[in-house]
Amino acid sequence: MAGRPKKCWPLIGFSLICLKMVASAKTAPEIPTIDQAYSKISNSITVEWATVPGATSYLLTAEDGDTVIETTVANSPGTVTGLKAATVYQITVRSISAAGRSQASPPKQAKTVLAAPILEVSSPSPDSILVQWEAVYMAIGFSVSIMRANGLGRIWRENTTNTSLTFSSLEAGTLYTIKAYAWNANGTPGDDSTCNQRTSPRAPANIQVSFDSGALKASVSWAPTEGAFNYTVMALSDSSERSCHTTLRTCTISSLRCGTEYLISVLASNDAGSSKSTSTEALKTVACAPGRVTIREDPPGHLSVAWSNVDLGDYYVAFVKSDDGLEVHCNTSFTQCNFLSECGFTYFISVFAYNKAGQSPLGDVFNYTTAPCCPTDINPVLVSSDRVEIVWSPVRGAELYETKAVAGFTVVECNDTVPACTLSALECDTKYNITVHSFSEVRGSNMSCTSQFITTAPCSPEIKNVSKEAFSTINVHWQSTNNDAIYTVTAQGEKGLFRCSSRGESCTMAGLPCGSVFSVTAVAETQAGRSLPSYSVPLETVPCCPAGLTVTQVTQSVINVSWTVATGARTYVTVLESHAGQSKCLTQQNQCLLGCVSCGTNYTVALKAISATGVTADCAYQSYSSSACCPLGVKLYRLGPNGIRIYWQASRGSVNYSTDLYGSKGIFTCTPSAGLSFCDVTEIPCGDVYTVMVSPVAETGLKLTFCPQKIYSVTCSGSTLGMVIYRGKRNAE
C-alpha cells in the first residue's frame, strides 16, 4: 500500500506541528476454489473449499437451470439444502468479508442422491410383515432390511427391483424395525426410510367358559398371547351375536339369550391387527321360562297348572305359593302339574325350566285367587220391627259382603266391606231368610254360602183411645196385627211411671196422681223382640184442689179469698154465692178480691182449679159469714170536764162493738155492754183532736178496722161543759 507525502504548514505566533497523513485502500476477498461437492441426502449437497484469508463467511449457490438456491455458511464444508432428489446442480462459492464479496468460484457439478422410498408396512399374519412402497425416481433397485426393535437377534436384508417385499418366519406379536433405500444406475444408495411394525398376535389358547345362569352371562378366560394389546371375545349363535373387549385375560359376555347355543371364540389384537380364530367353545344357555301358562280350578279345591314346552329344557318345576307364605312345588318332565287349594287364598304361580346350565330366568308370575270363604258365625245383634243388624267374623279372601233378606217376593239387600250389615226397611213381625255371600273382585260371589231365618220384632200398636174411668183411672184401647204378642202400656210423667199389660187390645191403669201430665205409649213384645213404641198420646189428669182456703174481710163489701197453690192448676175461679146473688173472680194467682159483699150475710165459697189445657177440678168448701155492718150516726157528747160519750146507731142483729179514740195524748178504748149503742170514755184530756172509730167485733173477737173514722176536737172552755166540735171524716186505714 503506497503512502502519501508528508505536508508541512507554517503557523505565525504558534508552534509548527507536522501531521503525517496515511492513506489506505479497501479491496474484495479472494475467490474461493471448490475442492469437492457431493450429496448424501436427497435434498442437499455438501461443498468443501480452501479457506480464503480475511473472509468472514461464504455464499453457496446451487443452480439446476430452473431454480437458484443460496445458502450462507461460516466456513468449509457447507451444505445447501432444499434441493430436489436425483437432480444435477451447478455449485459455486463466494467469499464474503467487510470489504464485500468475491466473484463466484469456478462451478462444480454435483447430483443429489435418490429420495427415500415411502414405506407402507403391515402384518398379514402373526409370523410375517409385508413392506410396500411407491416407485422412486431414477431408482433401479431397492434394499430392505428388518430386525427386532430391541436389537436382539439377526438382521434380514433383501434386495429387490419390485415395490413390495414380505418377510416371513417372524415371531408373533413382536416389534420389528424396517429400513429401506433405493439405488441408482451407478449403485449409489439414496436416502433410507425407517419404520417400526409389530407382527399380529396369535389366537389365544386354553379357552375356559363359565356360565352364570341367573344373570345370563358367561365369563371367558384364556392363556395370554405375546404382543396382544387387547382381546375380543365373540359369542355367536344362529340368531344373535354378543362380544366383550378387555386388556386382561378374562372377559364377561352379558345379555346372553336363554334357550340358545353359542360358539365362543377369543381374538387377540394389537396395532398390527387381530389374530385369526382357531378354536371355539360351545355354550348352551339355560332354557327360557315356559310360556302360555294356564291355571284352572276344577273342581273347587284343585288347581291345574299347564304350560308350553321350551327349547333346551330337560325338565320343569312349578312353584305355587299362597299369600300366607306357604309354598309347594312339583317336579316333572311333562307340561302340567296339579295342586290342592283352599278358599280365600291368592296363589302366586311360577314355572321354571331346567337343563345342565341351570334354572331358566323368572318368567311371568301368575296369580290365581280362589273364591272367598263363606261366613259361618252370623249373629243378629239387633232385631227391631223394621231393621236387623247382623255381624260375623271376617273371612279369608272377602273384599265385600253381599247380604240378602228374602220374605216371599220381597228382597232386601245390603253390600259392605265390613263384616256387619244393617238390613232396613223390613216388614215388622215377618220371617226372613237371610244369606251372607262373600265377594271378591277377581272371583265374584261365593254362591255356596248357607242361609238362616230371622223374624223381625212385632209391629208397633196404634193407640185408638184413652178414656177416664174415674178420678185416677184410665182405660187405653189400641189396634195391632201381631201374632201372639204381649202389649204393655206405659204412662210416664214427672210424678212417675205407670203400666198395664194385656194380650188383647185394651188395659186399665189406676192410681194416677192429680195435676199431672203423662205420655201414654204402647209396645208389643214377642220372642223376636220388642216393637218400637207407638206414637204417644198425651194424658192430663185433673188439677189437684188447694190444700187450704182462707177468707178475709177487707172492707165492709170486699173480701179476700186466698188458697194454697194447687198442683196442675194454671187458672182459678172463685165463686161467692148467697141467697142474694153471686160474686165470681177468675185469676192465675192464689188469691182473689170479691166485691159487692153484703154485710152480716151467710155465703157459700166455691173454688175451681183449671189446668193450662182447660181440665177443671171442682173444689167445694164450707160457708162463710160476712162481717156485721159498720154503725151509722156516730156522735160524741161531753160528760163533764174529762168524760166523752160516743153514740151510734146499731145495725140489725145482735152485734158487739168496740170504740177507739186516737189523739196526740193517747188512745182511749171502750167496749159497750151487749145490746147498747153508746159507750162512755172518762178521763180524756180536753184541748186535743181525736179520731173516732166504732167497729163491729167478730165472733172470733177480731175487731174490724175498715169502718169509717170521724175527727172531733175537744176544747177546754173553762166550764164543766166543754164543746165537742165535729171536724170531719177520716177513711179507715
TrEMBL record:
**Keywords, ordered alphabetically:** Signal
Q: So which residues are the signal peptide here?
A: 1-25
User: A single Pfam family, by name?
Assistant: fn3
Q: What broad taxonomic lineage does this protein's source fall under?
A: Eukaryota, Metazoa, Chordata, Craniata, Vertebrata
Q: Which PANTHER family match?
A: FIBRONECTIN TYPE III DOMAIN-CONTAINING PROTEIN 7 (PTHR47135:SF1)
Q: Where is the Fibronectin type-III domain?
A: 28-112, 115-203, 289-373, 374-459
* Name under which the protein is recorded: Fibronectin type III domain-containing protein 7
InterPro entries cross-referenced by the UniProt entry: FN3_dom, FN3_sf, Ig-like_fold
